[in-house]
Request: fold
Amino acid sequence: VIEDYNNGNIEGALDHQNFAQEVINVIARYRGNIVAGKRIMKFLGIDLGINRTPFQNVTDEEETIIRKELEAIGFFERCNRI
Reply:
């Protein structure tokens, strides 16, 4: 976002910002960055383990939905992978 903005590519910066907001929206729907964020990291090949109390873990059903929502916004094509 910043690089595109600083280079005068406002359209590119907006595209990156809008994409980031779409990812944040998915994360927020599933109890935030600790719960959903950990599962997304696992999708990317970094297993951070289960959550400890007081945080809940993503259910199998939620995992399927999260993956589908991320696929719908092109997350896996646009993110960095290990």
Notes: The chain is about 65% helix and 0% strand.
